[in-house]
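Chapter review: from sequence to fold.
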Amino acid sequence: MLKVDFMTPGGPVFSGEATAVQAPGAEGLFTILDGHAPFISTLTKGRVKITTGGEEKIFEVGGGVAEVLKNRVTLLTESAQAV
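The token string follows.
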């Protein structure tokens, strides 16, 4: 399981556990799964998909930063709107 913290300047968007996170990176779309190697990436405008069990939460984002460390994903975006 991944611990996900997804925040904007206006406050938290999502905080909880997930099985996968998909996001639009500067080099293209990427997916983070349990055990993923640590990395940092800029985010571009697009959709972030957070999979929790069998449910998907989708957000339109306006850019930002993603950090992955030891099954912890932190997403900091300029804006986020649930789709």
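Two observations follow directly from the output. The longest strand covers residues 55-69. The domain at 2-82 is CATH 2.60.15.10 (ATP Synthase; domain 1).
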